[in-house]
Amino acid sequence: MTHPLWIYDTTLRDGAQREGLSLSLDDKLRIARQLDSLGIPFIEGGWPGANPKDVQFFWKLQEQPLVNSEVVAFCSTRRPNSNAAEDDNLKAILSAGTHWITLFGKSWDLHVIEGLQTTLTENLAMIADTIKFFRSQGRRVIYDAEHWFDGYKNNPNYALQTLITAAQAGAEWLVFCDTNGGTLPHEVTKIVRDAIQATKDLETPFPLQFGIHSHNDSGTAIGNAIAAVLEGVKMVQGTINGYGERCGNANLCTLIPNFQLKLDYNCIQDEQIKRLTEVSRFVSEVANLAPDDHAPFVGLSAFSHKGGIHVSAVQKNPLTYEHIPPEIIGNQRRIVVSDQAGLSNVLAKARTFGIDLDRNNPASRKILQQLKNLENQGYQFEAAEASFDLLMREALGTRKTFFTLKGFQVHCDKFSDEVCHALATVKVTVNAEDILEAAEGNGPVSALDAALRKALVNFYPMIAEFQLRDYKVRIIDGGSGTSAKTRVLVESSNGQQRWTTVGVSTNIIDASYQAVVEGLEYGLLLKQQETPVSVVAVI
Amino acid sequence: MTHPLWIYDTTLRDGAQREGLSLSLDDKLRIARQLDSLGIPFIEGGWPGANPKDVQFFWKLQEQPLVNSEVVAFCSTRRPNSNAAEDDNLKAILSAGTHWITLFGKSWDLHVIEGLQTTLTENLAMIADTIKFFRSQGRRVIYDAEHWFDGYKNNPNYALQTLITAAQAGAEWLVFCDTNGGTLPHEVTKIVRDAIQATKDLETPFPLQFGIHSHNDSGTAIGNAIAAVLEGVKMVQGTINGYGERCGNANLCTLIPNFQLKLDYNCIQDEQIKRLTEVSRFVSEVANLAPDDHAPFVGLSAFSHKGGIHVSAVQKNPLTYEHIPPEIIGNQRRIVVSDQAGLSNVLAKARTFGIDLDRNNPASRKILQQLKNLENQGYQFEAAEASFDLLMREALGTRKTFFTLKGFQVHCDKFSDEVCHALATVKVTVNAEDILEAAEGNGPVSALDAALRKALVNFYPMIAEFQLRDYKVRIIDGGSGTSAKTRVLVESSNGQQRWTTVGVSTNIIDASYQAVVEGLEYGLLLKQQETPVSVVAVI
C-alpha cells in the first residue's frame, strides 16, 4: 500500500534564480509541457507582474492548458498598511487565471522588522488579508512560510502565529521553507514535529496539510525533505536538476525516485518515472547548462563503473554495486574506459562494442597501451566511444580506409566592423584520386567541415545526410593560457543514429579537424556494418 | 565545549575513481601536501601494489613526510584459503611504511558468496587473520566494513559477526561504509544505533571507535554522515569536492563546516577552515575538473545574490539570505549581474567597482539596456567582470582609447604528418600611427595574442609583463553543431593582479580575439587607475 505525496515543481521560478540560468518565454513553455507529461501535480510558473515574460507565460497556458498539472502563480503578501483589494500587484496575480496561488509570507521577526520595516502585528494582518482576498475571488491558496526554520529558532511563538494566521485565513497547504538552506535534517525533524503538534487541534476552514521547501546550502536539501515527509508532510517542493539560487533547491530527480522506489510513496506513474532521466537532460538542454554527470539517479555517471573490482562484480550481479536498477528511471549502466582501466575493463568495453577480445590476444594489450598513451596526451574516450571503437579496429587490423587525408588550410580575417570571414581548403585521396576542395563557413570549423563534405560526397553520397549535432571544446591545461591543449568532442548524426568522436591538439583548429574527420569516417563505417549497440544512440 | 571529530580524506583513492578524473604521481603529492596544511588527521593515499603510481606515492612521502596528517595505506583482506603472512599483496602494503592501514572486508553475505566465491566462515577468518597479521607487524588498523548497510539489511547477524571479528582481532576503528550509496539518513540512524548497541559490552584489545563512509547515490551522503555522527560515530570519511565513483563520496568541503560551524564539533583549526574554499579550488585545478560553482559553502555561487529582493535585503543585513558568513570558510558574497538583473543589482554591482551610479542617471538605464542586449547575443558578464567594467565606462563616456583595431588575419595549415602551423597578422592604430605585425603560435589564438603584443609593446612597454593565465571556451547553442556561437573567457594577469574578459562570435577565432583585446586594454587601464577592488584579484 503506497501513500500519495504531492510533488510541487518550482524550476520555472526558484530554479531560474540560479546564477548563469536564463529562460525565455518559449523555454518556460517547453519545460512546463515536459513537467505536465511527467505528471507533476503542481508547477509554479512565475510571479505574474514581476516581469512581462511571466505574465505572457500564464496567458499562453490559458490558451492551451496543461493536461495533468495545475499551474500555480507565485506572489508575496500585500504591502504594509494597504488594502489587499486595491493592491495592483495582487490584481496582476488574479489575471494569471490560475486555480491555485502560492503566497509567501514572513515567519522570521528579523525579516518583518528589518526587511519589511513594519510591525509584527501588521505582518500577521498582511498574511490574513491577502489570503482572505484570494479566497474571496475563488482561488485556492498554498502558503509558503518563508524562512520558517530560522524564524522558529529565533522566535518560535511568533513563527507559529504566522502559520496559524495563514491556516485560519483559508490556506489549504502550509509549506515549511528553509529559504537560506542552513537547516540540518535533525533540526527539520524536531521543528516540523513541533509545528504539526502545535496546530493539530486548530479550527481551520480546511483540514491542514503541510509541505517542505528545502535548499542545498548545507548539502542536505534531500535529507531535509525526507526528514519532513517522515514527520507527516505531504507536499515536496523542488526543481528539476536542483537548479536554484546559490547552491540550488532540492533536486526533484533525486527526491522522486527516493520517495517512490525506496519509501513507498506514490508521486508519479511508473511509466512516467521511466522518463525521469530524459526530462532531466531535456531541461538542462533547454536551460543551456551542461548536465551534471554525477547527479544521483539521472547523471551519466550515476551507474558507471570504473574500478576493476567493481566492473567484474557488477557484471556477475548488478546488485553488488548498484542501489537500484538504472532502467527504472530510464538511465543505463556504463563500463568506463580510462587510464585507470585494467585489462578487464577494456575487455568488458570491447564486448559492448560487439568485439569479443581474448585476454591473451596481443591486440588486447596493444589497445590498453595505446589507450594509456593517448590519454596521457589528453585524449579522453569516456565520452567519445566512436573514436575508441576506431582505435580498437586499428589495433585489430580491421579499420577500413575510406579516404586518406593530405592536409588542410584555414584562413580567417576581419577588418574593422566587418564580419569575420572563414575559408578552408582540404586535400584528400579517395580511390587513388587526389581531391582538392574549398568552402566558406560561419567559423573555421564549419568551413573545414563543409570542405571535407564537398571533397567526399561524390564518392560517398550518404555523407549528405550526416549532420554535426554538437561541438564541445575543453581547454585541458587552462593554466598555460592560449598555448594550452584543447580537446574537442564532436557529435555527429545520420538522422537515425548519433555518435561522438574526439580530437586533441594545442591548435583548436587541428583538434576540431581530427574529431570532424573521425566523425565522417565512423558514419561511413556505420552504413557498412552491423551497428555496435552501445556506441551509437538511436535518435 | 566542542567535541573532537576525526576527518579521514580519501580523495586520492576513492575520489580518483570518479569518471573523468585521473591524477598523476605529482598531482597526488601536491594534493596530499594541501590536505596536510589543512590539518586533515587521516589521508588515504592509495592501494600500494595495485599500481606503480601508488607505490611511488608512499615512497615519496617516506622521503619527505607530512607534518600534520597520517598517511594511510588501503587494501583488502587476504585471499580466500591462504596464509596472510605469505600474501604478496599484504607485503606490498607493509612496504608503504605507514603507521595506519585501512583494511576493507565484506559485510554482505551476497558479496562473500557471489563476489569472493567463498564461505561465510572463511570470510570471517580472512578478516581476523589479516588484521592480526598487520597488528603483529606493529601497524594500527582501521576496518572499513564494505556494504555495511546493505549487508545488515540482508543478514544482520552475519554483518554484526564480521564487525565483531574485526574488533576482536585488533582493529581500532570500525567504519560503516554505504558502498552503493543507497541508504537514507533515517536508516543510517537506526542501523548505526543497533550496531553500537550490539558491540558495547564486547571485550576487545582497544576501546571501540566508529566511523562513517557515505556515497551520494541517493543525494544524502551529507545527511547520512550527520545522522551517524549524531549516533556517536567519531570518524567521518569523505573527499574534497565530493569526488568519487558514480555520484561521488561525501564532500568534506560541506561536512567540515557543517560539523564545525553548526554542530560544535572540532575537526580542524579555525585558521585552517579559512582556507577551505582555496583548497577546494586548488584540488579541482590539479584534478583538471571545472569547479562546481553551486557547491555548498565553497562554490563561486554559494553566496551569490541574483533576485532583486534578495540583493536589497542582503545589503541591509547579510543574515537575511546567508546561513553563515562566507568569510569564515574563505568564500565571499557576490552580487550577480545578469539579464534578470533589475536596476538595483546594476547599481549594487557598480558600487563594488567603485563607481557611484545614481538611480536617475540616464547612464544607469543605458548600462542595463546594453547589458540585456549583449546577454541576448550570448555574452555573460557574471564571470567577466573586467569586460563589464569596460561596458560601464563606455556608457559613462569614460572609457579611454589606448589603441584602435583595424583588423586581423589568421592562417592555419597542416600537411600529412606535419604539425599544424598557425600564423596571425594584426593591424592597429596607436597615436595616429598604423602598425602591422605578424607572429606565429602553437595555435591561432596564441599567434593572435603574440602579434597584438608585438604591435603594442613599443607604445606600452608594461604589456611585456602581461600573461594569459586561463582560456575557457563554451559553445553556447551546441545543438547547431560547428555553426554554433562560441563564448570565450580569457583570464589575464600582470604578475600582481588578474582579471577576466569575454568575447562572443560564431567564429571561435573572432570570439577569442575580442576577449584577448579587452584583456590587454584592461591591463593598461589598471596601470593608470586606482584598482577597482572586486574586479581584479590579487595573486
From TrEMBL, chains A, B:
GO molecular function (one): (R)-citramalate synthase activity
SUPFAM superfamilies: 2-isopropylmalate synthase LeuA, allosteric (dimerisation) domain, Aldolase
The reaction(s) this protein catalyses: pyruvate + acetyl-CoA + H2O = (3R)-citramalate + CoA + H(+)
Any Pfam family the entry gives: LeuA_dimer
Pathway: Amino-acid biosynthesis; L-isoleucine biosynthesis; 2-oxobutanoate from pyruvate: step 1/3
Entry keyword set: Acyltransferase, Amino-acid biosynthesis, Branched-chain amino acid biosynthesis, Cytoplasm, Isoleucine biosynthesis, Transferase
Keyword field contains Transport: no
Residues of the signal peptide: none
EC number: 2.3.3.21
Identification of the protein by name: Citramalate synthase
